[in-house]
Amino acid sequence: MNPQYSQAYLAAYYADYIREDLESVEQHEARRLHKSANLAFVERYVRPGRFLSIGCGDGVELDAAAERGWRVEGYDVDADTTARVARRTGATVYTGDLFELPLEDGAYDCVYLDQVLEHPRNPADYLRLCRRLVREDGAVYIGVPNIRSLSSRFKTMLGRAGLKRRHRGKHYDSWHHLFYYSPATLPRLMEQRFGFRVECVRGDPRPCLRPGALDGLRDAIVRRVPLLDSSFVILARPAR
């Protein structure tokens, strides 16, 4: 996004970003299962240990991680929300300036950013922080929207052709997304510029909620071909 929004605009936007009152019980449970699937993917590479979620929102990923045996901590920008999450979960949940917090270098088995890196004005600083905080044998999980997915390309094509006038560009979420990533570029940058070794790039891990064999096969294909998914995830370790 160029020019970027001001910090004041973003602070006001995110103060009202998390609306737990608008979510049904079923929607909340679906999100918890989705986060648990994300963590099952992480656990292929690292055992549950100390877990830091940057951009933890309403804490559903902290709930899912704690249920799986992780020792959880979180961070988000809205002080009221983080206070509620800390009271409910009993976890340490930080707010304020992320880069001034007393976070211990090399202390975390997993640093987790799901649908976060598209939001900040300074994503490079977030990647440097992740590299500093994760253990040498730990893992960093990053999930972001896929600007090069077939779905995104098709919607862009419709907009350019004048067939999507009312909601043209809506899929970019440009009122708060500042950066856009593809599976071909972000992993390469992480390795070349930020000291990571990328272990896996794939479509967003999701729980298999439908028992049908064809649905299970379709979900498996989407996970293995990021081009087919509107989001993709990266599992990375510190480079040795």
Structural class by helix and strand composition: alpha/beta
What is the number of helical segments per DSSP (H or I, 4+ residues)? 8
**The CATH homologous superfamily:** Vaccinia Virus protein VP39
The main pleated sheet reads as: 7 strands, mixed
Count of strand segments: 7
CATH structural class: Alpha Beta
Q: What count of structural domains?
A: 1
At CATH level 2, the architecture is: 3-Layer(aba) Sandwich
In percent, how helical is the residue content? 25-40%
Please state the CA-atom Rg, rounded to the nearest Å.
18 Å
Gross morphology: globular
- The helix/strand series, from N terminus to C terminus, equals HHEHEHEEHEHHEHE
Distance from N terminus to C terminus (CA atoms, Å) equals: 34 Å
Mean pLDDT: 82
And the CATH topology?
Rossmann fold
How is this structure best described in words?
The chain is α/β, with parallel strands linked by helices. It has a single domain (7-238), classed as Vaccinia Virus protein VP39 (Rossmann fold, 3-Layer(aba) Sandwich), CATH 3.40.50.150. 37% of the residues lie in helices and 20% in strands. It is built from 8 helices and 7 strands; from the N terminus they run H-H-E-H-E-H-E-E-H-E-H-H-E-H-E. It has helices at 7-15, 25-42, 60-67, 79-89, 123-133, 150-160, 186-193, 213-224, and strands at 50-54, 71-75, 92-94, 108-114, 134-145, 196-203, 231-238. Strands 3-2-1-4-5-7-6 form a 7-stranded mixed β-sheet, with helices on both faces. The protein is globular, with a radius of gyration of 18 Å. The two termini are 34 Å apart. The mean pLDDT is 82.
